[in-house]
Amino acid sequence: MANRRLAPAAEQPQSFAFTPENADWARGQIAKYPEGRQASAVIPLLWKAQEQNGGWLPQKAIEAVADELGMPHIRVLEVATFYTMFALEPVGRFWIQLCGTVPCDCCGAKELKAALHERLGPSGKVTADGNFSWLEVECLGACCNAPMVQINQDYYEDLTPESLNKLLDDLAAGRPVKVGSQIGRISSEPKDAVNTLTDESLFDGSRVSAWRKRFEQTEAAGEESVKKDEAASTEARVKDETKPARPSSGRANESNAVDAPAERASAGQAPVKPEDQAEARDAKAPPAQDPAVEDDKILRSEPPHHPATIGAGDDVPEGENPEARADAVGTRPKGLAVPRDDRPDDLTKIKGIGPINQRRLNDLGVWHYDQIAAWSPQEIAWVGAYLAFPGRIDRENWVGQASDLAGSKG
Length: 410
Ligand code: FES
Description:
Largest sheet: 5 strands, mixed
Bound molecules: FE2/S2 (inorganic) cluster
Number of helices: 16
């Protein structure tokens, strides 16, 4: 890789300014970018400055571009020293950039380099006649036609030391030269005889037809096979998964008929109180996995829910109204008609309260953690009977959880 240094001070001009024509052009380039993004025009402006200065960038030109774009000088110097397309020292009338990267190196760039060295002297120096200077650079993107050089703005590819020397002779003499491949390759077609993709069946459609036919046959066979597999799998699954009907899980609609009051009365048995049923269910129920699941179970196993209003329910017969059931065992907690500041707490953050029970608590005027945190044992008993899971509020420590949540609210 070439050294990227500014030319010695003796070769640097004292000033640089765009010609009026180039200044206009630069303003047009800058105007292509949105406000605040004018720095994006740095490459075209440096390129134009290099062109105006005879093919190389002096320090004053770099600074002028930086000033034009409102950039620190060092930022533009970083750009100019990074890209080898910017020459930092005076160049010959024909500036040769020789690619020395691997593909070109494998194809003869070393020989080209030796030829340049022999004919023009060391890189970075302008020949005595002012015609040439050369520099080894990294890949110029024409690897398919390696080895290659760029001379001023044109590429010359598929070079040998002989063809390169002839090219330089012609340029120096002002004779016309051929850009691109020097061996007549068009674009990046094969260098020698075409020896790949030569089978005509690749292009006459016959391969596609055969391929499509085979694909369709395979697809049809596959579908048949999948259908057979699915049928066998379903049969096996049905065989394995068939189980006797599940015995009563305790849900109200699956209860044994003798649980009905009329049946029990006719059998001479004492009526079963709803809270006893609930307690028994609660004791037998597996631990709740999820508050919403728990709510669902409760809804299915309880008498239909009657939305409560604060203070209502005293006159409803026991066994038909959850409030009457609760009044028999405790004291109803005081409720709020509406949440304070119209911002209820999320009661589902309390483990054991799902969305449905949250709604039922809201129906009771319970909206906030601090309300639950303040429940007395009598009020806990009331709410437990009302929600038909006596004991669970204490087991799940709703009061403690609510107290913590109220405290964390600040
Ligand atoms: S390696 Fe030489 S052009 Fe890419």
